[in-house]
Design brief:
Shape: globular
InterPro entries: Bact_solute-bd_prot1, SBP
Distance between the termini: 22 Å
Strand content: 5-15%
Largest sheet: 6 strands, mixed
Number of strands: 11
CATH class of the largest domain: Alpha Beta
Structural class: alpha/beta
Protein name: Sugar-binding protein
CATH topology of the largest domain: D-Maltodextrin-Binding Protein, domain 2
Pfam families: SBP_bac_1
Number of domains: 2
Number of helices: 21
Radius of gyration: 21 Å
CATH superfamily of the largest domain: Periplasmic binding protein-like II
Organism: Streptomyces cadmiisoli
CATH architecture of the largest domain: 3-Layer(aba) Sandwich
Length: about 450
C-alpha cells in the first residue's frame, strides 16, 4: 500500500502500488547489461542497481552520483549504474533479470513476500550480521522499519524510500460540531460511531470496491488483538497462523462494524481510486477514514481547503484486553535495496547501501515530499510540505515497537489475490468470520 508521488495519492496507482506491485503506467524497458553474471555488464568494477523508475527515482539518481564520486567507492573499487524499469511490470522484469546470467547486483523491492522466492533460492545476501557490525547501518534507520523488510528475523534489505503508515484520519469540523475527540480505545470508537449515526453521518469512509482499503482494518485489528507475532507467522509461510484466535476475533469485529452501519450501506460500490471515498470524507458525509499517509496529498490535490483546515489525524485505537501495543503501526514501512548473492563486489554494494543512511539522502527524500526512515530525519522535517503532519508520521513510526508490512505485500505473491478475495467476501457478507478463517488457512 503506497509510495512517494502524485497528488492522487493512495493506491491510486502512483502511491499505493509503488509499494505494491506496480505504479503509474509508463513505458517499460528491457532488463539488460546487468552486473552479477560478469557477462555483458557495464564493466568489471561497475555494479548495476535495478530500481523502480517512477518520479521518486531522482533521489536514487542523486545517491548514485554521490557514491560514484566518493572515497567509499574508490576504497571499495566499485561504482554503481542505475537501471530504471518504469511501469507496472517491475516485479516481472525483476524475476526475469534474477533468472538471467546478467542479474542486477542491487535490487529494489518491497520486502516480505516480494523477496521470499529469492531468499529461498539463495539469491540474496543475508545482511543481518553486516548490519549488526556496522554502526552506520545498525544505528542509521528506525528499528521497526529495518525489521519489517526481513524474513524469519533475518535482514535482507536496507530502507531506501519514505515511510507510509496507515493512519486514522478524521474531519475536524465534524468532530468539533458534535463535540467529539479522536478515539484512543475501541469502546470510544464505538461510542463515537453511535453518536455520528444518530446525527445522520456515516462514521467511516471506505472504498470497498477496491478491496485493499478493507485490508487495513483487519491488519490493525489483528495487531491490536493478538500482537504483531500473529501475522509474522503468516508472513513467514505458516498458513496455520490464520487460525490464531486473533484473526477470528478481528473478523468478528469487522462484521460487527459493517452490521452496525459504520461504513454506510453502499461502501462496496465506493472507490478510493476514482476519488469517491476521499470525497465522501472531505465533504463531511463520513467523519473518519482509515487510510495510508498518502491521504494527506490525496486531499491536498482534490480538496485543498479541507486538507489545510479540517483534516485531522490520529493513531488507531487500543483494543481493551488485546495483547498488541497501541504504538504498533501497519502499512508500508518503505522500499528496500537488497544485494544479489552473486554480486562480484559485495563491498561496493554495501558501501552504496550505506549512503541511504546519510543526511544528504534524507534531505533529498524530504525535498521529494517523503518522510525518511532514517534515525537522523527528525531535525529535517521542518522542510517538509506539512511539517506538523510529517513529524506526526515520523514520531509514530519512531516510537513503534513493530511496523507490520501490508498483508498483500508481505504474503507470497501466489496468496495475495485469493487472500484479498476472501477479505472482500467477509466485508460484503458472502462469508462469515469462521468461514473466512477456514478459507485463509487453506491458502498455500
Amino acid at each position: 500500500m503506497g509510495s512517494t508521488t502524485s497528488s492522487e495519492g493512495g493506491r491510486t496507482f502512483s502511491r499505493r502500488w509503488v509499494l505494491g506491485a506496480g505504479a503509474t503506467t509508463l513505458l517499460t524497458t528491457g532488463v539488460t547489461a546487468c552486473g552479477s553474471g560478469g557477462g555483458s555488464g557495464s564493466g568489471g568494477d561497475t555494479l548495476t542497481a535495478l530500481v523502480y523508475g517512477d518520479d521518486a527515482v531522482k533521489v536514487q539518481e542523486k545517491a548514485v552520483a554521490r557514491f560514484n564520486g566518493s572515497a567509499a567507492a574508490k576504497s571499495a573499487k566499485g561504482t554503481v549504474k542505475l537501471q530504471k524499469v518504469p511501469g507496472t511490470e517491475y516485479p516481472a522484469k525483476l524475476r526475469t533479470a534474477m533468472g538471467s546470467p546478467n542479474a542486477p547486483d542491487v535490487l529494489f523491492n518491497w520486502g516480505g513476500g516480494s523477496i521470499k522466492a529469492y531468499r529461498e533460492a539463495d539469491q540474496l545476501v543475508d545482511l543481518t550480521d553486516t548490519i549488526k557490525g556496522d554502526p552506520v547501518l545498525k544505528d542509521g534507520f528506525l528499528p521497526s522499519v529495518l525489521a519489517a523488510g526481513g524474513l524469519d528475523g533475518r535482514n535482507y534489505g536496507i530502507p531506501m524510500r519514505g515511510m507510509q503508515p496507515v493512519i486514522l484520519f478524521y474531519n475536524k469540523s465534524v468532530f468539533t460540531e458534535h463535540k467529539l475527540q479522536p478515539p484512543t480505545t475501541w469502546d470510544q470508537l464505538l461510542d463515537i460511531n453511535a453518536k455520528l449515526k444518530k446525527a445522520g453521518i456515516t462514521p467511516f469512509a471506505l472504498g470497498g470496491s477496491d478491496i485493499w482499503p478493507e485490508l487495513m482494518w483487519l491488519e490493525y485489528l489483528v495487531d491490536r488483538i493478538g500482537g504483531p507475532e500473529v501475522f509474522e507467522r503468516i508472513k513467514n509461510g505458516d498458513a496455520s497462523g490464520w487460525g490464531d484466535p486473533a484473526v477470528l476475533k478481528a473478523a468478528q469485529y469487522v462484521r460487527d462494524l459493517i452490521d452496525d452501519g459504520a461504513f454506510g450501506k453502499g461502501f462496496s460500490s465506493v472507490s478510493y481510486v476514482n476519488g469517491g471515498a476521499p470525497a465522501v470524507f472531505a465533504q463531511g458525509k463520513a467523519a473518519m477514514h482509515l487510510m495510508g499517509s498518502w491521504e494527506y496529498s490525496t486531499q491536498l490535490g482534490k480538496f485543498p481547503e479541507f486538507a489545510k483546515n479540517n483534516l485531522g489525524w490520529a493513531a488507531f485505537p487500543e483494543i481493551e484486553g488485546g495483547s498488541g501495543d497501541v504504538r504498533n503501526v501497519v502499512g508500508n514501512p518503505t522500499n528496500y535495496w537488497s544485494v544479489n548473492a552473486r554480486t562480484r563486489n559485495k563491498d561496493a554494494a554495501i558501501a552504496f547501501l550505506k549512503d541511504c543512511a546519510s543526511e544528504a539522502y534524507a534531505k533529498d527524500l524530504v525535498a521529494n515530499g517523503d518522510i525518511p526512515t532514517t534515525s537522523n530525519a527528525a531535525g529535517l522535517l521542518d522542510a517538509a510540505p506539512n511539517p506538523e503532519f510529517a513529524r506526526f508520521q515520523y514520531e509514530m513510526v519512531e516510537q513503534a515497537p513493530a511496523f507490520t508490512l501490508s498483508w498483500d505485500q508481505a504474503v507470497d505473491p501466489s496468496v495475495q489475490t485469493p487472500m484479498l478475495t476472501e477479505i472482500n467476501k467477509l466485508f460484503v457478507g458472502q462469508s462469515t468470520p469462521s468461514r473466512f478463517v477456514s478459507a485463509l488457512q487453506g491458502l498455500r
